[in-house]
Amino acid sequence: MTTATNRHSDRRISPVFLGIVAVAAVTGWATWTGFAEQPGVAVFLFVTAAWIVSLCLHEYAHARTALHSGDISIGAKGYLTLNPLKYTHALLSIVLPVLFVIMGGIGLPGGAVFIERGRIQGRWKHSLISAAGPLTNVLFAVVCTAPFWLDALDGVPADFQFALAFLALLQVTAALLNFLPIPGLDGYGVIEPWLSYKIRRQVEPFAPFGLLFVFAVLWIPEVNGQFFDAIDALLRTLGIDEISTYCGQNLYRFWTETDQYCSINQ
């Protein structure tokens, strides 16, 4: 009886997560209706809360897939509650991704949940566990871009369109960066089970520095330009133009001067 109760509590959605969802819902409504006196504040809170929700779902996808693949220790760690405070590295999973959105408007891959890989048998299962997280970002991006590629924007306020466009940009960048086959990122986790033991041992020491390497490379102006050109091209195929993402980021950074061009296009 006690065991069953514990198992149920291990999977009960956390009030912390529900609170974040509530913030996203209320500020999304405020952005839609224009209720907020400063629309930028509402957009900031809406996008930030929705971004944190997506980070929680990203980690939940890893954990849930691991549970069904054989790691029954996942529930006891609290990963199935969607509580970001339960993550192995709350700083990496939540704080840093939010800071990078605020500073640079890029979806930083977060992490992580600790998975006991020794409990899981089969290379396909290991690959699927790693892929589950970024696939969640892909799904989130599809939801955010759906009104654009479905031509369903009639009656949607401009501020809400801009916020969705910026949120879509974050999801797309997070998915692409996460899928890079670089040690420490999910993309490498997808291919790692298929590599020889020798190669895995040689690469293992570099895993903690994979993300730093990615940002060092993105710091190069030429690489940064090409990366965001690719992101813009992908978003355009989904019906989102550069103006929408630019104005979304401009609104999000409400503490900076508002571009009058975005105000005219509202």
UniProtKB/TrEMBL annotation:
Query: What family does this chain come from, according to its entry?
Result: Belongs to the peptidase M50B family.
Q: In which organism is this protein found?
A: Streptomyces aurantiacus
Q: From what superkingdom does this record's organism come?
A: Bacteria
Just give the chief location class: membrane
Q: What is this protein called?
A: Site-2 protease family protein
Required cofactors, per record?
Answer: Zn(2+)
Q: Where are the transmembrane segments?
A: 16-35, 90-115, 127-150, 162-182, 203-220
Query: What GO cellular-component annotations does this UniProt entry give?
Result: plasma membrane
| Cell compartments where the protein resides | Cell membrane
User: Top-down, what is the taxonomic lineage of the species of origin?
Assistant: Bacteria, Bacillati, Actinomycetota, Actinomycetes, Kitasatosporales
